[in-house]
């Protein structure tokens, strides 16, 4: 009767354990995770049995290995172009205008290209990360270790806890140990197969990226100077951020290096214990060492360079507060084009309202000799000429009479259009919208009147009329005469056109002549003390020679706050901007830092990062040593349990047991089917040597076997015989040498 009760109790416990194990597999399913990654990478969404690579260090076919460099190349090109386009955001409006000239459609083409490059960069990054995850380890040993540990926890807690409490205990155990089980990952490679859809798309992206790079290198060479300027601003912060990134990268690097070291120790053990496989193990050991060098040496070289890179870093934003120059003044580029329609009275008045020091515009001559303000080569974008005279919308603005130009509306495109002229333009108030709808094309005399009233400088580009224009040869004389007739103070005119300067000096000696990127000798010969140059010229030594010669510098077009901060730190006198509202609100340059504070951050980050990295490597080394001990314990426990179970089965079959009775111990692991062994005593703990093999000891007592019924004998035979036929351990975590004879 007692035998029957024991059997029923054992069957009940076994059923509860099976249900509990199913609950674990339901909530912690590794196959779903790998199926998702394989589906994204190979477009195969069905769970398949994992295929091990033929060679431990080679996880994919030759075709996949040949294609992998192309994937890396597409990733690098996409990230490079995406970063380049982000850094040149100051030029987005100019790019949109160039595309408008070619297509005739105004849109945020720069934002479209930015989004497209971002999507491609994210796509190639995900492919690369997926391949790295699939090529990394799979938690086979984690599952073995969890099953081994669960069996211990389950049977130890069964006497004191209920079923729900046991589930709660196991879930807490998983949440706590899943974060530190990386050292138990087995080095089992995942076969990679990138779907042909991905391969074709990657091969299409590479020539597309190369084409974009060719365009940048051929037609927009100056954009690379913008990247150089951005690095001048952000270099201290990039340096400190890079050190933080290296600390984060030290975790997987340390894990990989220590894991390879553990694998190398295993190989050395095989060499000393199994002379027949010496050549294979030596070759594998060499590959392991090569991998350690390939991963570890670049990491530590980059880290060393980051530790000493401030010695060669130059940033104008690193200076003492007392040496910081005054804030640059502003020239409103076509007025304030983010607050009102460009080149209109409203736009210039908005620029004056936000503190503009000067007003910038573009002057053209009408067919009847009236200077007016217009930037484009036609009237399509900034007027309603398509509604008034659609057949003549593509004509040059200088070929129209001023009487016709005054009938055009120059503000509805700004207030009522669904596509705004600037992507980050703030919404207009209802009063400003109504005012913008009533704007007309402005004359030069309107601009001069505002400048005279507000005492603002006026600078403008003067475009020559077309060849058939009646004022083709005398347009400069015409403009000078209009300026002088307006009675504006001559020192408020910053004359930019470079033609006929002698005539202008004779007619208007009070004009301030402004040069472009002339040499210092040319500026001295022309008696020019102010230059107006592209902001990218700041890359060349910060225009130090011009500042040393007391030349006043105006840079165009500066819209981004980080670029204005760089100009401020470079002690530039003035800038031409579209974004006067935002830049005028800046009270100090962004990303400004004193040298002493940067020195403190540099030393502090170096010391702190070194401590963290050393601690991370030490932690992984400790975990690797603990993993070896755990795996050796699992091997010893499993082999001893298998031997005991085999002796019991042979005894049932009437065959003498080849193993000593003292080596028999109960099996509580799931891997050796604990429900078929019923013992009434606690298992004997066998000591192990350094390699995990059990050391024979004198038994303290002999385990007493419970009586076995015929039904139990048949169930045991049906359950155990397939396991014995496999003729291999269930958990082969450590490869043991053959016994010496």
UniProtKB/TrEMBL annotation:
Protein name (database record): GP-PDE domain-containing protein
GO molecular function terms noted in the UniProt entry: glycerophosphodiester phosphodiesterase activity
Compartments where located: Membrane
Family of the protein in this entry: Belongs to the glycerophosphoryl diester phosphodiesterase family.
InterPro entries: GP_PDE_dom, PLC-like_Pdiesterase_TIM-brl
Domain of life (superkingdom): Eukaryota
Residue stretches spanning the membrane: 66-86, 106-129, 200-217, 237-258, 293-314, 597-619
Topology within the bilayer: Multi-pass membrane protein
Gene that this polypeptide is encoded by: LOC102183296
Cellular component annotations (GO), alphabetically ordered: membrane
Keywords: Glycoprotein, Hydrolase, Membrane, Transmembrane, Transmembrane helix
Start and end residues of each GP-PDE domain: 328-587
GO biological process, one term: lipid metabolic process
Record-linked SUPFAM superfamilies: PLC-like phosphodiesterases
Organism: Capra hircus
PANTHER family registered for this protein in UniProt: GLYCEROPHOSPHODIESTER PHOSPHODIESTERASE DOMAIN-CONTAINING PROTEIN 4, GLYCEROPHOSPHORYL DIESTER PHOSPHODIESTERASE
Primary location: membrane
Signal sequence annotation: none
């Amino acid at each position: 009767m007692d035998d029957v009760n024991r059997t029923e109790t054992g069957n009940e416990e076994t059923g509860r354990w099976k249900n509990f194990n199913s609950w674990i597999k339901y909530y912690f399913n590794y196959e779903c995770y790998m199926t998702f990654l394989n589906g994204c990478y190979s477009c195969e969404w069905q769970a398949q049995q994992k295929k091990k690579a033929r060679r431990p260090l080679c996880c994919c076919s030759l075709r996949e290995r040949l294609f992998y460099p192309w994937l890396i190349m597409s990733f690098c090109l996409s990230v490079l172009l995406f970063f380049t386009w982000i850094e040149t955001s100051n030029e987005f409006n100019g790019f949109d205008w160039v595309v408008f000239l070619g297509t005739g459609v105004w849109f945020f083409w720069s934002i479209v290209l930015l989004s497209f490059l971002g999507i491609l960069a994210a796509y190639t990054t995900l492919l690369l990360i997926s391949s790295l995850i699939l090529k990394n380890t799979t938690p086979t040993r984690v599952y073995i270790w969890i099953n081994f540990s669960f069996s211990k926890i389950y049977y130890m807690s069964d006497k004191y806890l209920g079923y729900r409490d046991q589930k709660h205990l196991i879930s807490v155990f998983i949440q706590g140990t899943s974060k530190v089980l990386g050292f138990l990952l087995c080095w089992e490679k995942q076969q990679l197969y990138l779907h042909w859809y991905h391969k074709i798309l990657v091969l299409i992206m590479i020539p597309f990226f190369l084409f974009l790079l060719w365009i940048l290198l051929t037609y927009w060479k100056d954009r690379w100077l913008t990247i150089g300027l951005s690095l001048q601003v952000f270099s201290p912060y990039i340096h400190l951020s890079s050190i933080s990134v290296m600390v984060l990268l030290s975790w997987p690097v340390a894990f990989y290096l220590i894991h390879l070291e553990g694998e190398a120790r295993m190989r050395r053990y095989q060499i000393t214990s199994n002379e027949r496989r010496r050549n294979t193990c030596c070759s594998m050991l060499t590959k392991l060492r090569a991998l350690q060098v390939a991963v570890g040496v670049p990491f530590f070289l980059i880290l060393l360079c980051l530790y000493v890179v401030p010695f060669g870093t130059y940033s104008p934003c690193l200076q003492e507060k007392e040496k910081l120059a005054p804030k640059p003044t502003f020239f409103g580029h076509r007025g304030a084009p983010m607050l009102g329609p460009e080149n209109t009275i409203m736009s210039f008045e908005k620029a004056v309202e936000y503190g503009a020091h000067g007003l910038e515009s573009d002057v053209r001559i009408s067919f009847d000799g009236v200077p007016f303000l217009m930037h484009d080569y036609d009237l399509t974008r900034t007027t309603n000429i398509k509604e008034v005279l659609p057949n003549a919308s593509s004509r040059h603005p200088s070929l129209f009479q001023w009487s016709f130009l005054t009938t055009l509306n120059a503000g509805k495109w700004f207030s009522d259009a669904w596509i705004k002229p600037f992507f980050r333009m703030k919404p207009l108030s209802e009063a400003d919208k109504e005012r913008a709808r009533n704007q007309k094309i402005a004359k030069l005399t309107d601009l001069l009147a505002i400048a005279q009233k507000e005492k603002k400088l006026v600078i403008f580009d003067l475009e020559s009329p077309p060849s058939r224009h009646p004022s083709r040869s005398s347009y400069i004389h015409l403009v000078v005469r209009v300026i002088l007739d307006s009675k504006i103070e001559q020192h408020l005119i910053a004359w930019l056109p470079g033609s006929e300067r002698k005539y202008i000096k004779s007619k208007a000696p009070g004009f301030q002549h402004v040069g472009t990127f002339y040499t210092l000798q040319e500026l001295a010969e022309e008696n020019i003390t102010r230059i107006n140059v592209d902001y990218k010229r700041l890359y060349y030594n910060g225009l130090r020679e011009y500042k040393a010669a007391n030349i006043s510098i105006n840079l165009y077009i500066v819209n981004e706050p980080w670029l204005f901060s760089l100009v401020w730190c470079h002690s530039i006198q003035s800038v031409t901007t579209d974004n006067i509202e935002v830049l005028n609100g800046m009270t100090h340059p962004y990303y400004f830092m004193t040298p002493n504070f940067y020195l403190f951050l540099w030393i502090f980050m170096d010391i702190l990062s070194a401590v963290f990295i050393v601690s991370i490597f030490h932690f992984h080394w400790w975990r690797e040593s603990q993993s070896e001990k755990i795996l050796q314990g699992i091997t010893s426990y499993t082999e001893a349990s298998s031997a005991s179970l085999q002796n019991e089965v042979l005894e049932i079959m009437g065959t003498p047991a080849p193993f000593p009775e003292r080596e028999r111990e109960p099996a509580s692991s799931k891997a050796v089917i604990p429900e078929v062994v019923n013992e009434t005593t606690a298992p004997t703990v066998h000591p192990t040597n350094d390699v995990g093999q059990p050391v024979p000891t004198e038994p303290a007592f002999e385990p007493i076997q419970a009586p076995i019924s015929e039904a139990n004998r048949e169930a045991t035979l049906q359950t155990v015989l397939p396991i014995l036929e496999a003729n291999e351990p269930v958990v082969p975590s450590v490869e043991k040498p053959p016994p010496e004879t």
